[in-house]
Amino acid sequence: MRRVILLCILGVAVVLTGNSHSEACRHRARRCSYSSWSYCYPSGVRAPVATQSATVPPWTRARVVSAKLFTSPKGRSYRILQTGEMDTHEEAQVQIPPLTAAAAGPDRFLGKDRKVSKTSIAPGAVETFADIAALRTTLAPDEEMVHAPGISEAEDNQRTDREKRNVKVRAYLLAAGKEKDNDFHLILGFADAADTGAMLNSEVSGLPDGGPFAAPLKMVRDQFKEHFGSNLPARTYDIYDPPIPVEVTGSLFFDLDHRGGTIGPGTYKPSTAWEIHPITNIVFEP
Predict the structure, then answer these.
(1) Buried b (16+ CB within 10 A) or exposed e, 132-165
(2) 157-171 pLDDT, tens per residue?
(3) How far apart are CA 280 and CA 120, in angstroms?
(4) How far apart are CA 22 and CA 145, in angstroms?
């Protein structure tokens, strides 16, 4: 009888210990930085690095279809998790012809909505912010911007007063995709990629047909293309594992084409329609 009682006590202890580890694991997993070795394992045990795996943390809810390795020009290693996701509002803009395989390389801006603002640089000095969260505290609420005086989707619509700002911010590049209008969407945020209130869409703009902004915007586009080389994102989003540290400079812009929470793959959707658009300088792994 004593043996039976002892076995029962041991069994209960094992179950309680397992539940405790599971609960701790769930809490640690939310705090882990987003990388292939950031999943929850018992203390002292390093998770295997599944370099070719398409596994992502469950809270991303991204539809990943494949994965590949990427070594940056500075020698750092990442996984590129290729998803099957794109921004649906872009697909609804039927006036923009879809990119074919043969036309995937053009850099010219193909969009119409607020074209002048999207392909120009705001006047004024550059304001520096420590992170996206700090920058976002200075932005007007989305519901005010939708009705801001003078704002419209017209092709020649100029920046409103609240958009006439240039900013510089340190962040992490969580994901990127190439849009139908030839802009690259860059989803920026914190390394743990958990707070959409601390995310922001930032765009490497397609190029205007000449004018004073063509050369500086081409420089940024070249920076982006040179960093990724043959690993540039295509028409669906790539997620970077771990997120890539960046320093981004550019002009503020409010995008009337979409609402907050609709841009980006999985749960990596900034909760605002504010953007840095266009990017005027990008430094990878500063």
Answers:
(1) bbebbeebeeeeebeeeeebeeeeebebbebbeb
(2) 999 999 999 999 999
(3) 10
(4) 44
Nearest-angstrom CA–CA distance, 263 and 91: 12
* Closest among 238, 188, 189 to 86, alpha carbons compared: 238
Three-state secondary structure along 200-250? Answer: EEEEECCECCCCCCHHHHHHHHHHHHHHHHHHCCCCCCEEEEEEEEEEEEE
Pairing verdict, β 184-189 and 200-204: antiparallel
Q: Can you give the length of the chain in residues?
A: 286
DSSP state letters, 157-213: PPPPGGG--EEEEEEEEEEEEE-TTSPEEEEEE-TT---GGG-EEEEEPPBPSSSTT
Residues of the chain with pLDDT under 70: 1-60, 89-105
> Which of 21-60 are b and which e, b meaning 16 or more Cβ less than 10 Å from the residue's Cβ?
eeeeeeeeeeebebbbebbbeeeeeeeeeeeeebebbeeb
Tokens standing for residue 63: 């539809």
Q: pTM for the whole thing? A: 0.78
Residues 3-48: tens digit of each pLDDT: 544 444 444 443 344 444 333 333 333 333 333 333 222 223 223 3
- Domain regions of the chain by residue span: 58-284
